[in-house]
Amino acid sequence: MNKLLIVKKIPIAMRITCLLLCLIVFQLQAEDVYSQKTKISLDMKNTTIEKVLQTIEEKSDYYFLYNNKLVNVGRKVSVRVNEATIADILDKLFESEDVEYQVEGNQIILSPREKKMVSSEKSVQQQPQQREITGKVTDASGQPLPGATVVVKGTTIGTVTDADGMFSLRVPVDAETLQISFVGMKTEEIPIAGRTVFNIVLEEEAIGLAEVVAIGYGVQQKRLTTGATVQVKSDQIIKQNTVSPMTALQGLTPGLTIIKQTGEPGSGFKVNIRGLGTTGNAAPLIVIDGVPGGSLDYLPPGDIESIDILKDAASAAIYGSRAANGVILVTTKSGMRGVAKGPKKAQITYDGSYGVQNLYKKLPVANAQEYAVLINESRVNTQQPLMDFPSLVPDWDKIESGAWRGTDWLDELTVKDAPMQNHALNVVGGGENSTYSLGLSYADQEGIFGGPVNSKYNRYSLRLNSDYVLLRNASDTFDVLKIGERLRYHYTTQRGIGTGNQYWNDIFSCTVTSPFLPMYDENGEYHYAIPWNPQEANPIASMEYQRGHNKSKNYNLNSSVYLEIQPIKNLIYRSQFGYNMSSSSWRSYTPIYDLSATVFRDHDQVSHNMSSGYGWTWENTLNYSFDINQQHAFNVLAGMSAEKWGLGEDISGTNIDCIFTDFKYAWLTNTPVVNSDGTTRLSSSPWGKGAILSYFGRVNYDYLKKYMLTVILRADGSSNFARGNRWGYFPSVSGGWIITEEPFMAGLDGKLDFLKLRVSWGQNGNQAIPAFQYLATISYQNVNYFFGPDKTKVYIGAYPNILPNPDITWETSEQTDIGIDAFFLHNRLGFSFDWYKKTTKDWLVRADNLASYGTGAPYINGGDVQNKGVEIALNWADRVKDFSYDVGVNVSFNKNEVTKIANSEGIIYGPDHVLGQGTTELFRAQVGYPIGYFRGYKTLGVFQNDEQVKNYKNSEGIIIQPNAVAGDLIFVDTNGDGVISDADKVMIGDPNPDYVIGLNMNFAFKGFDLSIVGNGAFGHQIACCWRRWADSPLNNFTTNIFKRWHGEGSSNRYPRLIFGASPNWQYVSDIFIENGDYFRLSNITFGYDFKHLLNNVPFEQLRLFVTGQNVYTFTKYFGMDPEIGTSTDDSNYPWAKGIDIGYYPSPRTVLMGVSIKF
Amino acid sequence: MKKYICLIVFIGFLLSSCSESFLDTEPLTQKTNATFYETEQDMIQALTAGYFVLVDCPQDAILFNYPFVVGNILSDDCFGAMGDNDTGARAIDEFKIIGPSMFEGMWKRYYQGIFRMNMLIENLDKPTYSTEQIKNQIIGEAYFLRGLFYFDLVRMFENIPLVLKSEPVNLPQADPKDVYAQIASDLKKAIETFPSVPKGELGRANKWAAEALMARVFLFYTGFYEQETLPLAGEEAGSISKNQVITWLEEVINMSGYRLMPDFRNLWPYAIANSKYSEKPFKYAEDNNLEWYGEEGGNEENMFMLKFSTFADWGTSIYYSNQMNLFNGWRSYSYKGVIGEGWGMSTVNTKLWDEWPDNDLRKRASIINVKDPAEISIHGIDDYGYGTDPHDKQMDETGLWQMKYIPINLYTDGQWSNYSVTLYGATRNFQLDNMQDIVLIRFSDVLLMHSELAQTVDGINKIRARAGLAPIASYSLQALQNERRHELAFEGLRYHDILRWAGQSNLDQVKNIIDSQGGVSIINNGVPSEKKMNFRVETRGFIQIPEREISLSGGVLQQNPGWGPNAPVYQ
Predict the structure, then answer these.
(1) B82 Ramachandran zone, left/alpha/beta (phi>0; psi -120 to 50)
(2) What backbone torsions phi and psi does residue A1095 show, to the nearest 5 degrees?
(3) Residue B517: its pLDDT value, please?
(4) How far is CA A731 from the centre of its chain?
């Protein structure tokens, strides 16, 4: 049976093109008699001709083909026939109309009669004669192209090539030109000129160049863009089967750095484009379907049609206000406009997968025997008596005999085969004047850590996008009035374990707890602390009690409606109103527990908070495209946008003494006694309201599609600044030159097929700071006092909490970009290169002021940050017979440096106690260094003997470490003053990689497909510490301690063990810094489309696949995962990363799934 | 076509004309300086934020920003001690540093208080007050607090910028004389403005506290700087004479309503650990029929104190509880008893114990000696484990612990918990449930200051009588010094007494006293050792200016002598 051509897995713009072609494509068959034989009955009253034709199609094997602009099928008729031939019915239907029909095989072509008459006149009263032509379509290498479309230009006569690339077609004798097209190839037009046999060679279209990319408030042909942008298509994302699209984007997008904060299900990502430009919010602006301020974290991958990343200032400038960190434009799937007899039915797809996740690599810790030896060694090193294990450790005899190796707390924490599943159902379709796209999806991921209360993430989402044409112009050539809507709803629930700093990190607790403590007692209850360390609690129990009984829920509604008016052709006014609503709740129950001398709770506690609110945007744009003499093409855009956010409120309550002892009943109503001593707490507050008002304009110009120029100006006013300083103006200009269009480049086809040079410069803004920095606000937070005899009575205090900065205004990010796009070797090799320099000026920063000013520093426009880098992407795509493949590699180099902080210190400090209680500052931002660099002492190894200590002198002969003994670290006296002090600290590491690499490969052969995605980062360091060296000598050890110094010549890496504190382990030094280089095979997917085997199944695609995620990581890093996006306190220090004190790693996942298309 | 353009132009016009108001927002959970300092209530709240500074430790988890604590450690009463990784306390003790800005918290905290009071004083006339008395009370408290903040700063750091306005200006350090003149003027203003009523609300400054503080300032300034009078600020302002101070102290003694309480031991919380409150009473309290005077007004000796409460919480502020007591508690997780656990700070100098006559009841009321079985039997603490494993990270261990500010537990319902659990319904949590007020000015100090200034024995003998000691016949500085040391031990005063009794031209005397701690036997982390001590005369006895502030000032601030780049680092 012949079918209309449906093109799979191609971008929407191309898909629309294909659909238009489908309209006029059909195949010929030589069984004309059939229409005479087939008899059907109809009884329809007052229905459209269209309906009648559909009914005929249902009752017979015929398809109708017509152009609804030429044939009026909307006319209402009544038909009543019994066992009539189709010819009879058609005669009757069109008897009053100038419509004639022609039967070709089982396809019936309807066409207006007058056209025929015109051609009749031409052929001077002759019956139109037809003749047969045949031919073969191949690509440049001679491979046949099956499925290529061959039509007579300007008519509806056409066919598609068969499996051998062959076609035959009956064409009118007067046909002049054949048009041959194929996806990914340049369309060819060939004069018929009386020939009957054709050998047609199609040239490949440069990859992606014909595609359109989103540029903000519009689209543009990739070929003509002048900025540095990257587009990622839905299939590249979907086929990786990740829960978050961010995971799938890793490695696909040069210049976009994505690092997960933790590997916990539902955890966020640290995303930045071309390096950190600020210590504030460095995340790019995310615009989903034209509505700014969205989040990709909860967007199901299946909803996404494409993601465009605007990296350079010129591209992002149209979103000037918040584009300082770049812009990510997300387009969700919209419907397909069926033209007339377009696709008979909607396209329904289902993608589902199910799999299990496991810990990729465990952090090895000492077992009970090793631990005992290490502790006693540390006792000996500090001249302390050996431990009396039998009196302190239960079942010591079993440990001594080796019968029990102690509790491995990380094993107790680990969950094996944690399930994960993804399901997405999408229905896409449309009629002549309306389109729709409906998506439903569900994702469920459990964590690999958390033991009895493991982490869990659930997401339900719904998408409904539709568009309606209300009015066409009189000659039916363009839409005059169009409306539409985008609607997404997500509901997510989440439960997590502690992944923060050393006081709130269950993985850390498990690495430090002694293996002597058993998990359970004889009653099967959690074991109480043992005399060995009476304050040390069972970490699994404290996790369950303190963090195990909670649930957070998030509800998100993202919606927008638009109206488009096109009064004259190519002049489009568009108005869009977006409304985002979100709501969340968090509830927890903490029971009474008693786990050790210090870890207990006498009253249970219920906490509950809720938050709800919305924001809106309203955008109006006017867009006109025109050309002059078909040489100068212009696209002019002018617009305004108004946005308000933070229109919401929070409420929260905490109380003790619940009348039930179960999370299920943990509601505040069940804690009936209200206490005045601070154990009952209530609060509610409004969200921080904000508004932005913007006006913008853009001119895209090109001359003969050879020289391009884009100019953008945007003005934004932000509520974060005082009147007078509100408005920021952000210009940009960019140009492009397609060198291969020049005559002097002619003749390079097949070698250099395309070469474009791009240059851009622009400025973008950032206003992401807390509101009211221009006012001296009075704070009532935590400045209470307690006069009088009653210790349970509060007196509220108030104080001005910042010095006002009335001058505060926009931060500006200025960027210059020079880029090259090129295609070589018959477009099989694609190359793109970008060099950029991005300078953040008037950096919004909270630099400390003098303490004698008496209150907090406000944000000031007080610093500069520079990022410089190079991005290179190479892509090779080819096809050898049935085997097609492509390989893409990209690499991004970036160098980050703070160049100014506007106080005399030039430092923004990081916190103390990051690498364990008692350690000093680990990271900071400082002039002359990359943001968040690690600072501490450099070491020269370990003193092997006391002689070395005596000989370690500065130039003046002062012994630098007179108190040191053999086995202590040799600290570098960098300033040469003979003492080791704070002044000797230097940069000992940088968490920002020198370069990141992405790799993706796709192979396809007769229904089989294989894709491999990898990513890596190089040249950065990780600060890691899994022990509280200073204040907890009884903490367990990770096994890298086996490399410690324990006698001359034993080690030059780690110092001797000490029972207690010592500079060796308490000073922040490079012994805690490791290289973080890694390359990860992040996704391997292998699939087979059974449609190739089973032709008769009613599916268009029936693909089964297996996916492995986080398959293999090449790294020398000792910890569980080298990709570390956390500072352990991301709410206060979002600019720091690369710190591992018990990092929740990404799991290794194996998934099986199916993709079905109807 | 036209109508669409018109529509767009119209919309554009509409929006641009109201764009500024579209962008206006207003803080809803905060006032601003434009809407604050307008009512009496605002002024009281602004004052409260000043008091909060007294209990707040904004930057550090370690208490180096309490002059009270630092004074105790610097003095010859106590050692720094704590655990072996808590090097800060021992660094202070030995006139060393552990970092370039270890006193940042203190510096910052006091300037916050000064800023808040400057704002308040600048706006004093804005609101309408309900009564003149309330207005005078507010004015008095504001000037009192500013004076107190400056006094603490200047006696710790000596060279500080004198900030008297709320605008941020990078000021150089003032001549200490000018700072003292300002303190004197502020306190004089407070004394003259405060309503003359007895006592007043617990925790609030009043006329009598201001008079007592003035005496303390006078004694320190005239003693250390070797002057006759205390200057006042301003060209023509004159100065405060000794006689004026004596007159003020006599007002306190006669008119304030404060008095000496009959039993010294009942001033301290261990007195509550009797059989009435505890199923396992503290032998010392039980045998002596002690009964704590408490903190609800029954103690008429405490004139001005830092107030703590049940509201401490990790999520809000832990400093609503008395963190100093936690730090003074015993480093023991296995020991459970009357003395509560903590971080083992400020162990008592053995010499103080040895030199203190046994017939002074304040000796055993102030110090517990856990290494002497006879002493243990007096107090009934028998399983401390001196020098052994339960205290294995304890440094500077002498077996002597002060008993004035230390966690006190009661045994009820089958477990030991802080008395605050029984008394105030606090939640059991040894890190947060210490609530003993820290007394900054006690009436006995007023009596002794009066004795010292007037050179009479009246005050000394009242104090001695309460301690069960015979009166002395005639005044001598030595007798006064001994009396102050024993009466006010561990109350944050001793160090500055030592400095002022010597005077700036005689710092060797300070060195002799402080260095006498050297050679005392201690146990460090279970290992017997000797205390090392080196008072550095070049520091003049003052502490390091935070290097961060010097760096932030761009060199406008200067480091104190002895604390520059070569200051000894504790290792």
Answers:
(1) left
(2) -65, -25
(3) 95
(4) 28
| Integer CA distances (angstroms), A603 to A590, A594, A659, A683, in order | 9, 11, 11, 21
| DSSP bridge pairs for A587 | A551, A608
Q: Using the CB atoms, write b or e for A1097-1135: b if 16+ within 10 Å.
A: eebbbbbebbbbbbbebebebbbbbbbbbbbbbbeebbb
Which residues of chain A neighbour B161 with C-beta distances below 8 Å? 852
Phi and psi, residue A871, nearest 5°: -125, 135
Residues in chain B: 571
State both tokens at A107: 């396809």
Q: Which residue does chain B place closest to A790, by CA atoms?
A: B296
Q: What's the rounded Cα separation, in Å, for the pair B262 and B130?
A: 39
- Taking an 8 Å cut-off on Cβ atoms, the answer to whether A851 and B104 are in contact is yes
Q: Which of A756, A1001, A999, A1020 is nearest to A890 (CA)?
A: A999
Q: Which of residues 506-545 of B touch A (CB under 8 A)?
A: 525-527
CB contact under 8 A, A640 and B333: no
Tokens of A583: 């709501």
Cβ pairs A/B, distance under 8 A: 271
Whether A1094 and chain B come into contact, CB under 8 Å, resolves to no
pTM, 2 dp: 0.82
CB contact under 8 A, B52 and A804: no
Question: Looking at beta carbons, which residues of chain B come within 8 Å of A384?
Answer: 392, 525-527
Interface check for B49 against chain A (CB to CB < 8 A): the answer is yes
Looking at A803-871, list the stretches that DSSP marks H as alpha helix, in order from N- to C-terminal side. Answer: none
3-class SS of residue A461 = strand
- Do A798 and B48 count as a contact with CB atoms less than 8 A apart? yes
Question: What is the mean pLDDT of each successive set of 10 residues along chain A, which is 1158 residues long?
Answer: 38 40 34 56 79 78 69 75 77 72 70 50 50 82 76 76 81 81 73 82 64 85 88 88 89 87 88 87 88 84 91 86 86 74 69 95 96 94 88 93 96 96 92 89 95 92 94 88 95 92 93 96 95 92 93 94 94 95 96 91 94 95 92 94 94 95 94 86 92 94 93 93 91 94 85 93 89 88 92 92 89 94 91 95 87 90 92 92 91 95 88 88 95 96 95 93 94 92 94 95 93 95 93 92 94 92 90 96 94 82 94 96 91 92 95 92
DSSP codes, B121-166: HHTTTSSPPS-HHHHHHHHHHHHHHHHHHHHHHHHHHS------SS
Q: Is residue A564 a contact partner of residue A551, using CB atoms and an 8 Å limit?
A: no
Structure tokens at A664: 């299920």
- Using CA atoms, how far apart are residues B485 and B448, in angstroms rounded to an integer? 11
Question: A827 phi and psi, to 5 degrees?
Answer: 65, 15
Interface contact B157, partner A, CB < 8 A: no
Give this complex's ipTM.
0.94
Distance from CA of A1114 to the nearest CA of B (A): 38
Of A568, A679, A983, the CB nearest to B565: A983
Measured CA to CA, the distance from residue B569 to residue B94 in angstroms comes to: 10
In our burial notation (b when 16+ CB lie closer than 10 A, e otherwise), range A46-83 reads: eeebbebbbbbbeebebbbbbbbebbbbeeebebebee
Paired strand residues for A644? A616, A691
Between CA A790 and CA A775 the distance in angstroms is 36
* Alpha-carbon span B440 to B459, nearest angstrom: 19
Q: What is the DSSP letter of B537?
A: G
- Closest CB to A853: pick one of B11, B20, B115: B115
Q: How far apart are CA A774 and CA A1043, in angstroms?
A: 55
Residue-by-residue DSSP string for B388-421: SGGGTTB-SB-SEEESSSS-BEEEETTEEEEHHH
Is the distance from CB of A658 to CB of A624 less than 8 angstroms? no
